[in-house]
From TrEMBL:
InterPro entries in the cross-refs: Ig-like_fold
The organism's place on the tree of life at top rank: Bacteria
Organism: Candidatus Fischerbacteria bacterium RBG_13_37_8
Protein's recorded name: Intracellular proteinase inhibitor BsuPI domain-containing protein
């Protein structure tokens, strides 16, 4: 019955990057991602119970198996190493270019954009941080209004898919959550070393784009 149908996966809030990585590990293609609330019901003995889980990601998994993506993922996994300290001062330099964005973005929705990110510094950007996420280098963003005032400082995090050496350039699919209220906004995309600093604070130039957010 489900042989040729798309499937769906549920993912807890804060675990989206890990869920996405595990799905791609199996060579499957990810479709639309939504945030939903779900209600669960069941029996425990003779007692009927129910409870609600808020803000869970519903991930559409397309029924396409890509062998090349499986091999690419395995290769990238072998090139992930851990960083255990802040970068050197000249390591926080990046060139970020946004290459692909959706044509229409609705309020309070999740969307992907593709960014080209180049390491312009003199330090390796290791893809993994310590156990508690400290020192990990992620792609993130700020939302600003038309006046340049920051409305959201800490956006969702997208981890680096692999270690990036000085001079290297990669493409990253960056996950963004749009503002709740429709209107005109400025999106500022930057890198951040967790619990240390944003790259912009060390002189790196973030990428900026103007967006018109529509109502649902």
């Amino acid at each position: 019955m489900l042989k040729d149908k798309n499937k769906f996966a549920l993912c807890a809030k804060g675990q989206l990057a890990i869920c996405r990585e595990n799905i791609q590990k199996r060579g499957l293609e990810i479709g639309k991602i939504e945030m939903i609330d779900i209600s669960l019901f069941g029996y425990k003995g003779f007692i009927y119970f129910g409870y609600q889980i808020n803000e869970v990601y519903l991930i559409e998994v397309k029924n396409n198996i890509n062998i090349e993506k499986i091999e690419e993922f395995k290769a990238r996994m072998r090139m992930k190493s851990e960083i255990t300290k802040p970068l050197q001062d000249d390591g926080y330099q990046a060139t970020i270019k946004v290459l692909k964005v959706p044509e229409v973005i609705e309020a309070e929705s999740l969307f992907w954009l593709t960014a080209s990110i180049q390491n312009k510094g003199n330090s390796i950007w290791n893809a993994l941080g310590s156990e508690n996420g400290k020192y990990q280098i992620n792609v993130s963003y700020h939302w600003l209004n038309k006046k340049g005032e920051i409305l959201l400082y800490d956006g969702m995090r997208t981890p680096l898919p692999e270690d990036i050496y000085p001079g290297e350039e990669i493409l990253v699919d960056v996950l963004i959550q749009s503002p709740e209220i429709p209107g005109n906004y400025l999106l500022r995309i930057d890198l951040v070393q967790e619990m240390v600093t944003w790259f912009e604070s060390r002189g790196s130039l973030p990428a900026e784009l103007e967006f018109k957010i529509t109502s649902k």
